[in-house]
């Protein structure tokens, strides 16, 4: 059976006739001629294959089918107006896409809330991940701004240096190498971990079950490996326990944190991204550059 669609203007005509109490007043309310209203009601009845008014009754009365259609018509018109109003509102808003290093993801909720309060004209689409991956997205124009840990780009500004610390409580067999959880060669934090272990001549081995930041954190929480996180990570997550002072010797040196932009980032986006970054990093052990 062929698909039959009801035009919105036919539903508006039905509602107007009922609300205004007749065809003549409905035509005045909708700024069309009375014959036009009559034709629209006839067209509606043709599509429905049912009359919507009892024409032998005065005043006009709806048929059972007409009453059913009227109830749906009001909802359809309301939904149509809601959609148009939403789209009109979006035209007045500025959208931008912003990445955030997975190490700062805990601050995303506060960041979005602050943006909504301070800059109601802006809407932010967010992405998290390793800083190197986010930097690639900036270069490709898939993101307009990103907060990066230890990863510098051609268009960036340093926000400070993040203080780091060792975490983990691992039972290690004497003479065994310390298990250390890393997230891959492209991670600036992983590279800093490896450099620190080499500088302090700590015998270690890579924990093979770790492939992403969530797996790294889980392995540390389970007592299976050591890793490096922001120095205050245990304050925000008590399940993360600092490593014994003598286990891995010195903590890694702080890593720079950058706010990076795509080559085509717009000036309003730059300012909004700066405000967002301040909130995302608030309370973290970040020293000024």
Question: Short summary of the structure?
Answer:
The chain is 43% helix and 19% strand.
Q: How would you characterize the overall build of this protein?
A:
The chain is an alpha/beta fold and 289 residues long. It folds into three domains: 83 residues, Winged helix-like DNA-binding domain superfamily/Winged helix DNA-binding domain (Arc Repressor Mutant, subunit A, Orthogonal Bundle), CATH 1.10.10; 99 residues, 3-Layer(aba) Sandwich (D-Maltodextrin-Binding Protein, domain 2); 73 residues, Periplasmic binding protein-like II (D-Maltodextrin-Binding Protein, domain 2, 3-Layer(aba) Sandwich). Helix content is 43%, strand content 19%. The strands form four sheets. It has a six-stranded mixed sheet with strand order 4-3-5-11-6-12, sandwiched between helices. Strands 1-2 form a two-stranded antiparallel ribbon. Strands 7-10 form a two-stranded antiparallel ribbon. α5 crosses α10. The protein starts with 7 loop residues before the first helix and ends with a strand.
Write the layout of secondary structure elements.
Layout lengths: L7 H13 L2 H8 L3 H15 L4 E2 L6 E2 L1 H28 L2 E8 L6 H11 L3 E8 L1 H10 L4 E5 L6 E7 L1 E4 L10 E3 L7 H12 L4 E3 L6 H9 L5 E4 L2 H4 L18 E7 L5 H14 L5 E2 L2
Parallel strand pairs: 3-4, 3-5, 8-9
Antiparallel strand pairs: 1-2, 5-11, 6-11, 6-12, 7-10
